[in-house]
Amino acid sequence: xxxxxxxxxxxxxxxxxxxxxxxxxxxxxxxxxxxxxxxxxxxxxxxxxxxxxxxxxxxxxxxxxxxxxxxxxxxxxxxxxxxxxxxxxxxxxxxxxxxxxxxxxxx
Length: 107
Description:
Elements: E1 3-8, E2 11-16, E3 32-33, H1 35-39, H2 44-54, H3 58-69, E4 73-74, H4 78-89, H5 95-102
Antiparallel strand pairs: 1-2, 3-4
Helix pairs in contact: 2-3, 3-4, 4-5
């Protein structure tokens, strides 16, 4: 049992921490960025390469449109993960750059 001292009715008392009903912090908070910040995670060359590829690849175009339409882009969402991995599979991103983008690291 872990106790803390608190003031109750003018007296200092020991209380079991479990009795305080303090919610646990989330295991891991997902990194969420807005659409512009998401685009800024890509280098200029990557942005141009993705835009050019999106002219002929409907999957890339849909990924771009979804990201642009989103007010908030959770970097761990299935859509984002699939899109980034698809760009990587086409050689538009390296594994290292994909990891950096998904962790919210600007170039």
